[in-house]
Amino acid sequence: MDNKKTLYRRYRPSNFNDLVGHDTVKDILESQLKKRSITHAMIFAGQRGTGKTSLARIFAKVIQCKKPINDIDPCNNCNSCNEFNRESHPDFFEIDAASNNGIDEIRSIKANITTLPALSKYKVYIIDEVHMLSNSAFNALLKTLEEPPKHVIFILATTEQNKIPPTIISRCHVYNFNKLNLYDMKKKLIEVSTLEGYTLNEEVANEIFYISDGSLRDALNYLEQCMTVSENVITIDKLKKLFYVSSKLEKINLLINVFKKNIDYVITMINDFDKKGIDFSIFLLGLLEILKEIIEYKICNNKLYLKVLEEEEAKNFLSFHTSSIIQLTDLLTEAYVKTKNTSIGVQIILLQITKFHFNKLISVNSEASPLQYEKKDLNDKTLVEQNKKQNIKETDKSNAHVSENVFNNKTILSLDDDKKDYQLKELLRNNINNDINVYFDNSKVINELINANKEKRLLIENKLNDFFSLLDLENDLSNILIPLYSSKVVASSNECAIFVLDNITLTNWIINKLEINEIRDKIFNFFEIQFLIPITKEQWIHIKTEFMDLKNQNKLPTYIKQDYNSFSYKKTKLSDDKEDKFLNDVKEHFNDFDIEVEK
Ligand SMILES: [Zn+2]
């Protein structure tokens, strides 16, 4: 590394072809050059390090060149090009608005534009980071932009277009510079490495792409640092020495274990990444890229979609259902949004993965049978043994609940076969998706609402927020309260709190815990209450409506004091023979579709 110039400066593009990405903007500018019809005021907007200033310089150089090659490339031979290369062109001005508020610069531009160019047809002014100009500088610039002389061209570059006054924007053509895509950046990184005498492992190129967040300048800086610790080949181990990133193999391993529901392994792995100081938003980006490829590969059965994964690697995921993969992708996307700029990335990922682990997966999927019910794996070793047993029992119950509804709907059985199949499927699906919580009837909840007070609700809400923002996964209580993570405390009296949970699975989950005396006491002590009512969103909507109706009609009953010890979290269960009858009915009607019903 004899050359003192950084890689980024050394490999700065000198013509349109060298510039990576931004094909649309390049097309527009090239077409202006070919038609010799140049826009007088332009805004180049986009993220840092994507090539805005580089492209502005190339464009300026070609405009000023005396004999451009094919109209779009500088000849590098004429006196204009020579002056440009010596950085002493009399008609080219580059101003950095970030270094001062710019009023003096803009005033001198105003004075300067009235004189004709010395060497070329145009005077070109690039104002970098233009959003940093002060208000008075913007006003001065506006006057200049209102009636610019024909020989003047302005290129305003910015990373924050929203900070530019609309009056300025309306006088300019705006060109957006997107983040570089994986393909373009990888190509450039490999090209630069080869020219520098290094072999760049493709996996490393992928990781550099993720950590640089689409900025080529950052990416080349990372590459340069890797070169300082590498001999000839830049491997993932070298990159890991400098920045803590996870390898592709580690990511694939993690995903496979998430799908196989080896939750112990997954938690250990993520905690291990956390100890090493991984940046979880970058880690998630890598996971999402892999998941996206798997989905495309599975749906289209075409290896052309594989850019990060090898086909052999993608095949590992063929046995997992597409709907599960999509569901995990959704949850991790949510996690990605939440992990940006936060120090609790590890907790968010763990919670989202646990959510995935416990969610019931029901989907109607065209690629497989019309109705599929993915079995919920209950072998979660992180729960205490006792709780585990309760959980399995509870799942039986909730299926029994679904069963009851389908079984009782006798009208279906008299319809003709096609309709029968269809309606039975619909009914089954609706019942699974919109399972109604039957633990507490509306009147019990309304009675508690009458006695509720805002102060206690806020106290509980704050307790819960504090708990999750300082979440310590080693703490026993974390394991107990996790189902309440995305819940909402809708009301509370000094004795009893009402929690609304996203779905029946989470509601069942917390109820399973409440059935165990020891755990129940811990929860109640934590919130300083004597009772907790968990309900689903759906039930809450009904109760709220009923409560408001009663209130509006002045018909709210008086509060009846409760003996909370007599409340039960138990639910009645269908008798076994009824269940068998139901299963037989369902199997009979679904045999064509290979339906799996969990018993
Ligand atoms: Zn030239």
UniProtKB/TrEMBL annotation:
UniProt subunit comment: DNA polymerase III contains a core (composed of alpha, epsilon and theta chains) that associates with a tau subunit. This core dimerizes to form the POLIII' complex. PolIII' associates with the gamma complex (composed of gamma, delta, delta', psi and chi chains) and with the beta chain to form the complete DNA polymerase III complex.
Pfam families recorded: DNA_pol3_delta2
Enzyme class (EC, first level): transferase
CDD domains hit by this protein: AAA (cd00009)
All copies of domain AAA+ ATPase, residue ranges: 38-180
A GO MF label: ATP binding
Organism, scientific name: Spiroplasma turonicum
Source species, domain of life: Bacteria
Keyword presence, Transferase: yes
Annotated EC: 2.7.7.7
InterPro entries per the UniProt record, alphabetical: AAA+_ATPase, DNA_pol_III_sug/sutau_N, DNA_Rep/Repair_Clamp_Loader, P-loop_NTPase
Annotated function: DNA polymerase III is a complex, multichain enzyme responsible for most of the replicative synthesis in bacteria. This DNA polymerase also exhibits 3' to 5' exonuclease activity.
Sorted UniProt keywords: ATP-binding, DNA replication, DNA-directed DNA polymerase, Metal-binding, Nucleotide-binding, Nucleotidyltransferase, Transferase, Zinc
Gene Ontology biological process terms in this record: DNA-templated DNA replication
Family, as annotated: Belongs to the DnaX/STICHEL family.
Catalysis performed (reactions): DNA(n) + a 2'-deoxyribonucleoside 5'-triphosphate = DNA(n+1) + diphosphate
Protein name: DNA polymerase III subunit gamma/tau
GO cellular component: DNA polymerase III complex
